[in-house]
Design a protein that fits this description.
Blueprint lengths: L1 H8 L4 H35 L4 H8 L3 H10 L12 E7 L1 E3 L4 E3 L2 H16 L3 E7 L12 E4 L6 H7 L5 E7 L2 E6 L4 E3 L11 E10 L6 E7 L2 H22 L4 E9 L6 E6 L4 E2 L4
Parallel strand pairs: 1-4, 1-5, 5-10
Antiparallel strand pairs: 2-3, 6-7, 7-8, 9-10, 9-11, 11-12, 11-13
Helix pairs in contact: 2-4, 3-4, 5-7
């Protein structure tokens, strides 16, 4: 916009001018990407409601060819499932008793990297963050994804308690279950079975922020291998998930089978419906 350009151009310090101009250019490029994504989503929605591309073009004052171009070449609208603009991905730190310092486990690192690649693949930026060893995490941030279960964070435990359908249960020390209150069925990790199986259960859901000003995406396996499975599922099924719940609050359970040596997911599947919280 002219006013913003003029303000920046008046900066006398050349190094400050270079920095501010670079920052503003990055912001403008992100705005263009998100506006293009919004435009493509609107065309898809209007077409899904029964309007032809010719009708959309006429109402919008654009050519039919332009509408087709936007529909097929704009940024993917399902990226909004993850956030808009810069997405913060928070992974949990754990205390390494040998090194006596906070560390990121290999599984949590792999989950974060998979999510980061997914976000960047939609032309969005990533801001890495962490849940501290003592469980502190700021949930009142926009475009936030948190990879952390209730055992490691009181803040996340409180957030999961707002879910009207799915529950984390801890019937005995060291044992966590995921329970579907609709069916009454509880699920445990393969690591707690006899014999043990290379399988884990995990949660994915969009939960309300504590400040009531939005929501965030929560991901957690009973064990870290389950979180890796959710990240893998998102890379395969994000368009389908977006089509069902958009940015509404929801939750579901994911079953992951993984290689026992590498912990790489070999098969992931939703084992519950996508429960929309606004319908409960």
């Amino acid at each position: 916009m002219p006013g913003e350009y003029e303000r920046i151009a008046e900066i006398e310090d050349p190094f400050q001018l270079l920095r501010v101009a670079t920052e503003r250019l990055a912001e403008a490029q992100q705005e263009v990407t998100e506006l293009s994504r919004l435009r493509r989503r609107l065309i898809q929605d209007l077409h899904a409601q029964g309007m032809s591309y010719a009708q959309i073009a006429e109402k919008a004052g654009l050519s039919r060819g332009r509408i087709h171009q936007i529909r097929h070449t704009g940024p993917s609208p399902e990226a909004a499932f993850l956030g808009v603009g810069t997405v913060t991905i928070a992974t949990p730190l754990r205390h390494d008793q040998v090194k006596d310092r906070p560390v990121l486990s290999l599984d949590d690192m792999a989950t974060g990297q998979t999510l980061e690649q997914l976000v960047r693949g939609f032309d969005m930026q990533v801001d890495p963050a962490h849940v501290t060893v003592d469980g502190r995490v700021d949930l009142n941030r926009p475009n936030l994804i948190v990879v952390c279960g209730p055992a490691m964070s009181e803040a996340m435990r409180s957030a999961y308690a707002t879910d009207p359908v799915l529950r984390w249960e801890n019937p005995e020390p060291g044992l966590w279950l995921l329970t579907d209150t609709r069916t009454g069925e509880s699920y445990r990790s393969g690591q707690e079975m006899d014999p043990q199986l290379p399988m884990d259960m995990a949660y994915i859901g969009r939960l309300p922020r504590p400040d009531g000003k939005g929501s965030f995406l929560a991901i957690a396996g009973i064990h870290p291998q389950g979180s890796r499975g959710v990240a893998h599922l998102l890379t395969q099924e994000i368009a389908s998930l977006w089509g069902q719940v958009r940015t509404d609050r929801f939750s579901a359970l994911v079953r992951t089978e993984y290689d026992p040596n590498t912990h790489e997911p070999t098969r992931t599947e939703l084992i519950t419906p996508l429960y929309r919280h606004d319908q409960d």
